[in-house]
């Protein structure tokens, strides 16, 4: 028989790692065994590895991976996180876009209410505008005290929780979550209205345009949009400059200094309501929407250049001055030119057409207005996921909100915000006037809780250290915003505020239920090092086993004990997506005096399943065992709905390991009690 040379033999097919295909003869098969050096792991010390990004091998997985890369971009390492320190000029652009954008619709909402009583009610426009400016001054001065007390930054949730307790903190968080949802809905709807005012042919598509805008903002933030001062500065300062220019032209036209106004042909509707105190208060509550976003500077103090607190206080003061002057200037001109709100055109567009109709500057004003409004919506895409992260960290929201995606963005929070906001915009027809009644309740409730927290904070300093001036300022702020909250809740109740008034306690109840579940799980899984040493016993071992663990608790310890009962050597592996968790695990491991080696895989791209599969394959190759058993700890909740609060890591890992040859996967369930 003539021997077959290697050149004449059948070439080995190209296989994915661990893939199996039949050979030419019955019983033949090819298996690709990947050398340890080819696995996506880099050694970083004894029993410590760093995981590289992984890619799926199956066709569906590769297609989804390609779509994600196209839409979102390449994965970013945790070390690539950018932390830009902002000057006052850039910080004003970053933190004021939400507040300044409200000038595009606040005056219009005041007039929309007053016009119900006829043109005679316009006599109250300027007093209401002055009242809103006074309220703005009180809130700005109050938040300057918050910055003084929390120079490292203190969001409303944290400040309220620290000073008033967990329950008021949850009320503040629920109010803020609804506020962020409504910020996106109102801002995108108003931005689309600015566009359709300039291009009438797009008016029938305003709902579709708003949903598309929200979708694009969602994708952009999933890519990891940075709060870069340079990026934010252009649309913010373009809006400020164009609005001040428009106000200057309006003042010149009023004084007869060479500017001829072109009155817009609008017709006031027939009066349908009597001019009552209730109607005036309702108009005031609509105008109070101008204050949304004022708290942003106090939340972002750490982003400022040193001295952070002083720069933040100065920036907040400038933001208040700009916001107050723009709002009142638009209000005065709208009153002077007798502008009437309509569904077809925004008030700012009417004002611009009255003063500069037919000129390119009209389109500059509309473009700048749309830009600042879409920018305001984008800030909520940064704030909502950040607050959801803090709530998930404190076990008040599902753990999924804690984790950053491929691009260092809190993907779960961004996606939830995009979906909920799109549904709300569709339900309300992308109408700003239909959304405003829902808006201000949560904003002023958060203001009230934050300022009340500051009163408690100053009081706790004790005699001799208590700054009475700051305490008095925050007390006035708390009392004022509390009254405004009651006014808004009362006057807007039947117009939609009842939805938010019911939603906030409902959200608090859901968060408390989630927290109770997580505490119940933690109590059942908690295991002290002393108890581990007492329970550990020598057992016979026959084969090798790997036990992936997230932490050392009753479920993972039971899996380790089971692995020791079947294996000749056992290795525990931990994938680190949050570096601070490593120290806690290593400390507990040493305190428990476990003789099982612990391998840590650092995952700078925050992947979990890919690095786990890679380290398991690596250990399989290094141990040289024909078979290896992966023992997966998993706990089983008492109720089916509780599974939604957990990340289903065990199930995902079992699926990923199903196609790896010479590997046995065993789950060790730990059943949780009621």
Automatic annotation (TrEMBL):
GO MF terms listed in the record are:
transmembrane transporter activity
Subcellular location per UniProt equals: Membrane
Q: Recite the UniProt keywords alphabetically.
A: Membrane, Transmembrane, Transmembrane helix
Q: Where is this region: Disordered?
A: 1-22
**Bilayer-spanning residue ranges:** 110-143, 164-185, 205-222, 234-255, 275-294, 315-337, 361-387, 408-430, 436-459, 471-489, 495-514
Q: How does it sit in the membrane?
A: Multi-pass membrane protein
The signal peptide here is none
Q: Which Pfam families match?
A: AA_permease_2
Protein known as: APC family permease
